[in-house]
Known about the structure:
globular; single chain; eight-stranded mixed beta sheet; disordered N terminus; six-stranded mixed beta sheet; 16 strands; 20% strand; alpha+beta; 16 helices; CATH 2.40.240.50; Barwin-like endoglucanases
Amino acid sequence: MEHAWSMHGPRMAHAWITPGSAALNCSAQRHTAQHLRIAACQPCTGQSFSRAALHRLSAAAAGCCQLPPCFSGFLQKRGAPLSLQRNASLSFAFPSLLPCRQPCRQPGRKSVRLHLQQLVLCVLLLTLVLATGCAKKQPAVMEEAPTFVPSGPAVAMTETPKTFLSHIAPRSQELFSYREMAPTIRKSLVYAKTRPANGYAVNRAGLKVRWSEIVASLELLRSLLPELDKNPDILRDKFRWVPVKNGIKYSGYYQPSIKASRTRTDIYSQAIYALPPELKGKRRHRFYTRAAIDGPRQVLKGRNLELAWADPVDVYFLQIQGSGKLLFEDGTTAYLNYAGQNGHKYRASGRIIREKGYVLQSGDVLEQRAWFKKHPDRQQEIFFANPSYVFFRYSTRGAVGAINQPVDDYLSLAVDRTFLPLGGIVAFGVNIPDPVYQKCPLRGIGFAQDTGGAIKRNRIDIYCGSGERANYIASNLDAAGPAWLLLRR
């Protein structure tokens, strides 16, 4: 399992272009190019982009034939895929070389001459930009980032879909518009379409759903996105709202960043292990416990499975999150994603601490971390009482869910795939802790795109992104609320 990317440019660009959408008209291309140009200037103005932002920028650029000149360089600096960097360069220098999404005539001499004139003009403009510095003039169209804004009263377990829909708003999920959900919907669609249409996505007492229903529901929601901002009640008319009996117990997860070393040191003394070969391709297979792996027996020592080394407390909570970013001493970084688990049941460390007679106030993750740092001699006593152990793999992307797609802030949900269908649409409501508002309602439309060893039956983990706010919410969220599975009527 794994902050919200926030620049107005890429969000608006993505509202115009989504993978698989119809061909763009000239106005849409100019609009997208304008916002990508804004995005490309951000390194000069001190702004930063998350991995989620790059993925959405990539999706926008894939449909735009008028990319700005500095965009390919921006992508290279930000670690975007090489294929995207090459396309960005080509689209700037030779737009006619890229495949066009609309039928177009073969270029004649006038067209070639026009392209050469455009190239010369763009080179001159680029020279001018480099001479003056793009940081001196902030684009006038830049807007405030879509930060979280609470909407409506506190979420009630007994509220109806009508009440729920009367209080939802895009900014509750850090969106400018619900149209920005299009890439997340596409991820679920890509996964669901690989499954047998007549097979069951979930088959349990009280809920039987076929994959064809999941696909139809996702395609319907995607078609409704342009109307959703002004008329969210349309979801009540077009979908069956299947309530989750007894509601959901909500928690959160995020992508932590931890300091690490490529070799063992006194500070970085705990190994982060890759998945042992004997566990590959096996689910629910019992393996050695945490005590056997990290205790005196050190059963994995000498097998060349160590990916990196870090502080023992950081590694323990990295395993709880299931993914993260390593910050090495030499300045390099690397992403880790979930590779597997040892098959043992997860036990919450906060409960273990209390069971052993030690005092905690709230018991949240932040307090637990402080307690472990204050009592290093008791760390292993608590850690080893939780037999569950998570293994990792290196990745070129941030947190990737169980559908093998990057997860999205406040949109991707980790579920029990035997209880709620993976890829399905879930309307969820919960009162979340917030560093500014203390406690506030979060009502949203989410997508079951991940799983987790501790996620069983009536439990949902909300992916909160990365950064301080995400850490705060994910570390403190432990509340109940309603949920519905949305299925096309």
